[in-house]
Amino acid sequence: MAYYPIFIDIENRPCLVVGAGDVGSRKVLSLLDCGARVTVVSPCITDRLRSLLLQGKVAVQQRAYREPDLDGMFLVIGATDDEEVNRRISDDAKRRGILCNIVDRPELCEFILPSIVKRGELIIAISTSGKSPAFAKRLRKELEKQFGEEYAEFLRLMGAIRKKLLRTAHDPETHKHLFNRLIDEGLLNMVRQRDNDGINAVLFLVLGEGFDVDALLEHEESS
Q: Which residues contact 161 (CB under 8 A, 6 or more apart)?
């Protein structure tokens, strides 16, 4: 199997999770983190999901799965411990053309979920194409040590610079060499060291007047 790596925008899209144990709960939280509208179907639910239900963050049908649960869904994740139910979810989703993931059963999936390292807007996805989830987890832990929180701050700054530049010229290719220079001048390391004076010096050197790190980040937070 050769998987096509892709990032999907699921904000405000209806997504279904069948099964509400510890694994199902984690899948629900990851979907919510990406802005999905989540429905859970399960005879039993965890305290964590019950809390999300009371907060109005998820919809819950506390019963066994039925095929009409797929009506209008963008994707479905099957996280039950019942092999027959999982296979039925997969078959029903395929007939309807709905993206489907069955936890730990790649042969029943339209897509598989990689191991993730997330630092703000930086997302690093690691996949072994279902061959060794344990190795993917090991790689994730190694990358978490390598990529610290400074990468999140660095990308916030770069995003703020990009927005400001795009207000003057709308072709991103026009600014490509500027971003390469910012990287080459060691901007990331200055962010890591919280060297705002050094950052401002690099911004002036590469971009000229009107670029201040504090003002840029403040504007990014308010926009």
A: 179, 182, 203, 207, 211, 216
Tokens 């996949």 — which residue? 127
| Whole-angstrom distance, CA of residue 109 vs CA of residue 15 | 15
How far is the C-alpha of 33 from the C-alpha of 73, rounded, in Å?
18
Could you read off the pLDDT of 66-116 as tens digits, one per residue?
A: 999 999 999 999 999 999 999 999 999 999 999 999 998 999 999 999 999
The CA angle 95-96-98, to the nearest 5 degrees, is 115
- Which of the four pLDDT bands, split at 50, 70 and 90, describes residue 170? low
Please tell me the distance from the alpha carbon of residue 71 to that of residue 126, in angstroms, as a whole number.
31
Helix, strand, or coil (residue 152): helix
Pair type for strands 115-119 and 99-102: unpaired
- How far is Cα 187 from Cα 181, in angstroms, rounded to an integer? 9
What CA–CA distance (Å, rounded) separates 160 from 165? 9
Query: What residue ranges in the chain does DSSP mark as E strands?
Result: 14-18, 37-41, 58-61, 75-78, 99-102, 115-119, 122-126
Q: With beta carbons less than 8 A apart as the criterion, state whether 110 and 100 touch.
A: yes
Tens digit of each residue's pLDDT (9 = 90 or more) over 6-37:
999 999 999 999 999 999 999 999 999 999 99
Query: Is the distance from CB of 220 to CB of 154 less than 8 angstroms?
Result: no
Answer for the pair 213, 199: CB distance below 8 angstroms, yes or no.
Answer: yes
Task: Please state, in angstroms and rounded to a whole number, the distance separating the CA atoms of residues 35 and 10.
Answer: 7
